[in-house]
Amino acid sequence: MKDIILTGDRPTGNLHLGHYVGSLQNRINLQNTLDYEKFYIMIADTQALTDNADNVDKVKNNIIQVAIDYISAGLDPNKVCIFIQSMVPELAEMTTYLMNLVTVSRLQRNPTIKEELKQRGFERTIPIGFLNYPVSQASDILAFGTTIVPVGDDQLPMIEQTREIVNSFNNTYNPTEEVFKMPKALLPKNKICARLPGLDGKLKMSKSAGNAIYLCDDSKTVKQKIMSAYTDPDHIKITDPGKIEGNVVFAYLDAFCNDEHFKKYLPEYKNLDELKSHYQQGGLGDVKVKNFLYQIIEEILTPIREKRELLIKDVNKIYEMLFENSLKASNQARKTLEKMKENMGLNYKKLLKN
Ligand code: TRP
Predict the structure, then answer these.
(1) Among the atoms of ligand 1, which is closest to the Cα of residue 158?
(2) Residue 110, CA distances (Å) to 80, 98, 147, 204, 271 in order
(3) Is 147 found in the same domain as 280?
(4) Range of the domain at 252
(5) Atom 2 in ligand 1: residue holding the nearest Cα
(6) Which atom of ligand 1 lies closest to the CA of 152?
(7) What's the 176 CA to ligand 1 centre distance in angstroms?
(8) Whole-number percent of the chain with pLDDT over 70
(9) Do 224 and 346 share a domain, yes or no?
(10) Which residue ranges have their beta carbon within 6 Å of ligand 1?
(11) Ligand 1 pocket: which of 42, 136, 159 to mutate (most atoms <8 Å of CB)?
């Protein structure tokens, strides 16, 4: 049995380097190497609305931005099915039934929800839709028979929740056939990629924290951002010994650089270990390390920018692709929804006597 892969993003802004190392790279790799049955990538507008109810325009306008980011980063619409969540209404209907299998306190214990409630100042005014989005996310995953969900580590609680819902559904309704597959998370290979810090070194890179380098940033902006990145505040003179821990520039080098980059841009060092130890001893200035990082990031972002320029000329083509795919996804989700209702006993047509 080949795998079915599904993942997604909320369309609340352009994608940044955190998305790139945390999920996009992983997806592109899977797209190009794994022999999967189906690969869905969902633009989660419904989920984005759970904390943007009064900001529909923002969510709506970012759908195309995210789609362009995907394709320009290397996702191929001929290989992956990119669709829009709200255009698959079956997901909402599934959520309605699955909600009955989850308690409020279980959702409140979800570590990602807890963190997000804090960030949004929602502690006393939690929208029900927001608290419930892990259940809605379970529907996203289960509706397509997903076996693999490539995500960053902040999404692990959602996959765990989904797995609990599968067990709960099976215990409650004793289905006579397999309705839901048990999904597994697939995390990025290394820790730093799973949670890339922001430029300020405080939080993970995110739009809301204002500490991100976007895939669509121009060269000048990227340079400015890298030059402003948090390093070691006690590393004042070049001769001072510097700290690597908590140093954002080295965190990014961990995520992005390889030995080839040293050959090309900084041949006086063989690899990152050498660079790190020089920095720790003292005698290596931040600007030199930042310039090296800038060249590496530019190497990644230049082709993405070029592709974006081309794509932006014909957005209709991208919208048409999204609408077509959403219809296909809807047809697929309907099959699961019908099977689910049948196995719950919600099959009223059978009451008709002939
Ligand atoms: N919660 C995810 C995020 O914030 C987006 C998402 C929605 C998702 N539905 C999904 C991810 C299903 C994986 C699978 O990035």
Answers:
(1) 1
(2) 30, 17, 22, 18, 40
(3) no
(4) 219-309
(5) 9
(6) 15
(7) 30
(8) 100
(9) no
(10) 6-10, 42, 44, 47, 137, 140-141, 149, 151, 155
(11) 42
Residue 178 sits in the same domain as residue 73: yes
pLDDT digits (tens, 9 = 90+) for 255-305: 999 999 999 999 999 999 999 999 999 999 999 999 999 999 999 999 999
CB proximity list for 72: less than 8 A, separation 6 or greater? 215, 304, 305, 307, 308, 311
Q: Which pLDDT value is given to residue 22?
A: 87
274 plus 295 within the same structural domain: yes
Residues 85 and 181 in one domain: yes
Identify whether residues 87 and 179 lie together within a single domain.
yes
| Closest approach atom of ligand 1 to CA 44 | 7
Q: What is the DSSP letter of 197?
A: B
Asked if the structure places residue 163 within a domain, the reply is yes
Q: Both 170 and 250 in a single domain?
A: no
**In the structure, what pLDDT confidence band is assigned to residue 24 with cuts at 50, 70 and 90?**
very high
How many A from CA of 7 to the centre of ligand 1? 6
How far apart (Å, rounded) are the C-alpha atoms in residues 132 and 226?
37
The total of structural domains in the chain comes to 2
Best residue among 20, 116, 158 to mutate for probing ligand 1's pocket (most ligand atoms within 8 Å of CB) is 158
Provide mean pLDDT across the span 132-148. 98
Give a yes or no: residue 204 inside a domain. no
Pocket test for ligand 1, best of 131, 155, 181 (most atoms within 8 A of CB): 155
Identity of residue 65: Q
Query: In this structure, which amino acid lies at residue 169?
Result: F
Domain assignment present for 207: no
User: Quick one: pLDDT at residue 190?
Assistant: 79
Give the Cα separation of 69 and 217 in Å (integer).
Answer: 11
Which amino acid is residue 343, in one-letter code?
Answer: N
Question: What number of other Cβ atoms are within 10 A of residue 257's Cβ?
Answer: 22
pLDDT in tens, 329-345: 999 999 999 999 999 99
Measured CA to CA, the distance from residue 108 to residue 131 in angstroms comes to 7
Q: Model confidence over 165-211: pLDDT tens digits?
A: 999 999 999 999 999 999 999 988 778 888 899 999 988 898 888 99
